Amino acid sequence: MEPYLITAKNTPRLMDFDASDTSHFEGGKKDGLAELAKLNKKLESLQEILYAEHQHRVLIVLQAMDTGGKDGVIRSVFEGVNPQGVRVASFKVPSTEEMDHDYLWRIHRQVPGKGEIVIFNRSHYEDVLVVRVHKLVPAKVWKKRYRHICEFERMLADEGVTILKFFLHISPEEQKERLLDRITDPAKQWKFNPGDLSERNHWKEYMHAYEDVLQKTSKPWAPWYAIPADRNWYRNLMVAQILVNELEKLRMRYPQPVEGIEQYASQLDPNAQSAQA
Ligand code: AMP
Ligand code: MG
User: Which of 25, 84, 140, 225 is the most exposed, fewest CB within 10 Å of its CB?
Assistant: First the structure.
């Protein structure tokens, strides 16, 4: 069984979904952090092989309500991974140029190339989330987007992109604590955006919009995982575990060395050798 994997049959009702669940790990926070450190190491070597092999492309999509922990996942799960092979693409309110194009235009240019891991901090899913909740386009426009998105992701997968999507699910109570922190902690105040308070008032609508996203766009070639995210350590652990499992399934290998590589050792320093002879 794959914990938190969304399939057509088991889309959760998010209002009943326990965001503080930690049932898929037998220890508490201390053991969880130790386990995460091990997974960080595994991810580090998997990423190195991915880069060396230069065959697979990996796309990780992160979506969450404000304070849900997208930045925390990027920081903690990828700790130790070589920054040369990992790129973060953050999607904000579209620029004028982006608005002049279709909504997938800015997305497609950021997808990973061979040997690369790209993390989407928000994504094309905003175009059926914030856009739907705030009625930025008519319903008949955003309703068609689930199909576009499934087909777009299918195309990417057919072309060799491994897609993993994470919805980091926090409870409104936990969000309240985190927003309060942002208001009172001088080191976090820079993250505070008064707009987050009005977004919070649309909680139910967002949950409905997320339920539709999960139900309509979790596919075997681009699965969604709904991760309980009230506990940071558990959230990071679950995301890291899923990533490691999925990357291991790719059975990546270092590329074959050049023919007769052993002989090159003796050519390393020919002068020194002839001097010795
Ligand atoms: P943050 O990730 O906190 O820096 O905020 C980025 C903001 O951009 C969020 O409020 C998103 O909802 C918003 N955003 C991202 N993509 C879109 C989009 N396609 N249309 C409208 N707003 C968006
Ligand atoms: Mg924000």
Answer: 140
Got the DSSP string for 202-256? THHHHHHHHHHHHHHH-BTTB-EEEEE-SSHHHHHHHHHHHHHHHHHHT---PPP
CATH: 2.60.40.3230, 3.40.50.10490, 3.40.50.300, 1.10.10.10. Which one for 2-250?
3.40.50.300
CA 52/CA 85 separation, integer angstroms: 10
pTM, rounded to two decimals = 0.95
**Would the CB of 17 count as within 6 Å of ligand 1?**
no
Give φ, ψ of 15 to 5 degrees: -65, -25
**Domain chopping of the chain, boundaries:** 2-250
Count of positions (residues) in the chain: 277
- Quick: pLDDT tens for 16-69: 899 999 999 999 999 999 999 999 999 999 999 999 999 999 999 999 999 999
pLDDT digits (tens, 9 = 90+) for 68-88: 999 999 999 999 899 988 999
Q: What residues contact 72, with CB distance under 8 A and at least 6 apart?
A: 232, 235, 236
Amino acid at 169: H
Task: Quote the CA–CA distance of 25 and 237 in Å, as a whole number.
Answer: 9
Phi, psi (degrees; rounded to nearest 5) at 255 = -65, 160
Cα of 259 vs centre of ligand 2, distance in Å, is 52
The CA 168 to ligand 1 mean position distance, Å, reads: 16
Phi, psi for residue 76 in degrees, rounded to 5: -85, -40
